[in-house]
Q: What sequence folds into this?
């Protein structure tokens, strides 16, 4: 099976329970909120993420869950969907790339996962544990969150900020993606059943966040 089709059909089809209806809505978007969690020693130890799925996609997810498991109460349905989403995302590092000095860090298993229904949207929350580290100005930590196939666009919520919890002297800087014009035009032509020859296409459209701290702070 072609890699791009396999990624979407195998991962997102199973993850989002949309094997039957995904062709009607092949491109969705997510508002991303991130909190950087520091411990008492001033070291970053986790990234807490919240993904807010767009209203139309959220409704489709609920309708497909109801069709697959009729009669479930909302709380049970949300628990089942959260477990399945995170279970399938594990193979793809939860769509999260974390680097320091250009070395990609391993992604641990997510914890404290939950799915909420708020303001007509589904919100997936989880934490990614990190080996404790204090990123300094010379060696910042950088992360990207993106769907490799770019069927789902993931961008930081423009109405929110990147939260830093438990640290002084640390800040974050968000860099917008600057994909080449030809790549933007090319991505717009793809449909669900086409294989993109561009490996890891979504990375070209992903925002990058740099996290750095003053070494003088504890």
A:
């Amino acid at each position: 099976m072609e890699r791009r089709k396999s990624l979407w059909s195998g991962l997102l089809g199973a993850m989002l329970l949309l094997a039957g209806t995904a062709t009607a809505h092949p491109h969705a978007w997510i508002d991303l909120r991130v909190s950087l969690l520091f411990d008492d020693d001033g070291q970053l130890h986790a990234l807490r993420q919240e993904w807010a799925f767009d209203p139309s996609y959220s409704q489709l997810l609920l309708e497909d869950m109801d069709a697959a498991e009729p009669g479930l109460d909302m709380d049970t349905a949300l628990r089942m969907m959260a477990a399945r989403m995170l279970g399938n995302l594990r193979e793809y590092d939860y769509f999260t790339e974390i680097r320091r000095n250009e070395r990609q860090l391993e992604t641990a298993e997510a914890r404290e996962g939950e799915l909420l229904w708020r303001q007509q949207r589904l919100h997936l929350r989880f934490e990614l544990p990190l080996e404790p580290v204090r990123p300094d100005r010379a060696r910042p930590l950088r992360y990207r969150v993106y769907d490799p196939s770019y069927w789902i666009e993931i961008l930081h919520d423009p109405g929110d900020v990147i939260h830093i919890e438990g640290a002084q002297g640390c800040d974050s800087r968000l860099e917008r993606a600057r994909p080449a014009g030809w790549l933007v035009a090319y991505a717009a032509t793809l449909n669900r059943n086409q294989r993109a020859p561009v490996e890891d296409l979504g990375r070209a459209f992903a925002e990058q966040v740099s996290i750095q701290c003053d070494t003088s702070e504890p």
Q: What stands out?
A: The chain has one domain: 3-213. The chain has a mean pLDDT of 84. Residues 3-213 form one domain.
